Amino acid sequence: MLSSQSLKSKLLWQLIFASAVLVGVFSTILYNFIKTSIYEEAKDQLLKQAHYIVSNSPEKLDTSYLKTLDISVKIIPKPRYIDDITVIKSREGERTYLLLYYPYNFEEQSFLFLKKDVSSIEEFLDQLLQYIVVTHIITFFFIIALAYFISSNISYHIERLTVKLSKLNEEVLQPIKTRDLPVEFQPLGKSINILIKKVKTYIKYQKKLFVGVAHELKTPLAVIKLKNEVALLKRRSPEEYIETIKLTLKTVDEINKMIQNLLRIGRQEGDQFENPVTLDIIDYLREKSNNYRLLAESEGKRLVTDLQPKSYVISIQPTLLNHIIQNFVQNAIKFTPPGGTITLKSTPITNGLKIEVIDEGPGVNEKEDLFAPFKRFGSQSGVGLGLFLAKSAADAMGASVSVKNRKDRKGTVATLIIPAKLVCPLC
Q1: For the whole prediction, is pTM greater than 0.90?
Q2: Would you give the end-to-end CA distance of the chain in angstroms?
């Protein structure tokens, strides 16, 4: 039995109902059209006969030739409430007649009365109605079979996708072959493939994150344990104990900083479900650059902007966008030497917008996975989760990021590509 919550069941009943209504309406219109046409033709014949009689028999009626047509004719006084040509359908017992009142003699106020037996027409129409009803019933059962076939065919492809997805696991995440699906289901298959790609990326980085967390926490904890064990081996001066405690507190601060960044990752996963808003990205970058400029100037560096076009409006999740831009700019300020320049640049591209943050730092090793968690570069302090967070935010909203050396080898270019149509679930 089909469930009331089943898509197949709903589709089946909708097809049956729509088709049955269509056939019923069509049959009704067809029957009424045939019935009206037949009676109109009968009325026209009566009118022609009446006109002929009035025109050719002004004094004496000659109705002998009308007997073969089942028409009776007589002259009657003007009926009450009838002033002009009038046709009435009347039923007498089991017989049906058409009655025509036709003005005959104006001076005598008389009318020509024609009466035609149309029982044969009624019998024909009754038989026609029976044929239509029987045909309607047969067609209705055919519709049920056809609707069941169509709904089963549609649900078959959904069931195939369901089986395919049920067999996926983190070890075997293979994309669906969309070319094997009907055209109507190919967009769904492509969306599922995008989701599979995101899940694979998420699992990949989560594994790296867990391993990195274990490694990063293990080392400082081991240092704290060792320093305290050494301090307890023999009695020491108060200054030496104070120095040991300071080193321990410094290490604890580093651990706390790491934990804060891990919490940021957790918050960012929630930000992925932020409702997108319509945002002019150029205005957004122009506003943010004022804050970044103050931050750069506080460290003796300069931030300049080159924002093109004048406006670029898109539906986007602003918190995720902020994670990316803020990380790029902070890294650029961190690695650019005093007196150097950081450039925030935006450029329209085919089907999207490219945002670049260009610094004058030492550059990066492009052969390494720059977006892996706990990846640190140079001698600057940090936990090494910034680019990991930026990559995660970009993947979540359907954008792409990259970090490469400048062509002149005098710094780094961090790039964010925002497509015109984001593929995030909420955009």
Answers
A1: no
A2: 38
